[in-house]
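Researcher: Final request for today, and then I'll write up notes for the group meeting. The sequence and the SMILES for S-adenosylmethionine follow.
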Amino acid sequence: MGAAADRWRELQSGRGIPEHIRRAAPADPWTHRAADFAPPAEPADTPSRAAARALAERAAAWSCAGASVLDVGCGGGDAAFAVARPDPSPVARVVGVDRQADMLAVFAAAAHERGIPYGTVQGAWPDVAADADRHDVVVCHHVLHNVVDLPPFLAALHAAARGPAGGVVVEMLPEHPMAWLDPLWRHFHDLDRPPSATADDAVAVLREELGVEPEVRNWTRDRRLPHDAGWVARRLCLPASRLAEVESALATVPPRRTDAVTIVWSP
Ligand SMILES: C[S@@+](CC[C@H](N)C(=O)[O-])C[C@H]1O[C@@H](n2cnc3c(N)ncnc32)[C@H](O)[C@@H]1O
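Model: Predicted protein-S-adenosylmethionine complex:
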């Protein structure tokens, strides 16, 4: 493994939650609520959507059959369904991969509602990559910061994109999505969090492992609703009895950053 992949592994491993805190947590601090990931009827017009749409249009024109889109760590499929808007859609089929079955249920319902043929694969990427097959466009939004061993994850994204017209679109935040809560780990658990792996670190792994020089776009997204004290308490492994304390402590930390990064490459 190269230096960039080692650095990613070390930084990501450092973001684990110590066992004694995790054992005392009233709920799993990592699991996402599927209902929070239902895709909007009208997707946001972002650089990631534009990049995936351009790849899908190119693939559809090349094949004359419409493009297939694979969404890895799909949640409710925001990334994949955004490619199909506006009409006329270049998308013929979408496949969602996620390790959470409830996310795939939201994905399936959204595909059904939109009348888009779909498939789902439950499991952890890259273990289930063979079941997902190859596609014209591979999208993967807000998943990389869940991954410790990045080279096989990226290699499988790369291998899942079939040429010559397709490609991969990764969207992520410049730093770990929970990094804004680091001061609260110190406040509540007396725990210093190590620095976060960054999007630049991920790009360095891509270069090092796959020899890929991606197109990288930094942009600002709409401010997301602030996460309420209940949501934050769960991330911090705290019980409901401490909600009032979490609420006051939240007022002391800077709001979440709103910048995002789109990383695009073709195999
Ligand atoms: C932050 S959510 C993002 C969901 C969606 N891509 C979006 O942008 O709205 C991350 C999703 O990735 C899934 N996930 C994380 N690591 C995964 C892995 N190795 N394989 C498959 N799914 C994964 C989680 O279950 C979750 O649904």
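Model: The chain has one domain: 3-265. The CA atoms of residues 167 and 266 lie 4 Å apart.
Researcher: Thanks, that's everything.
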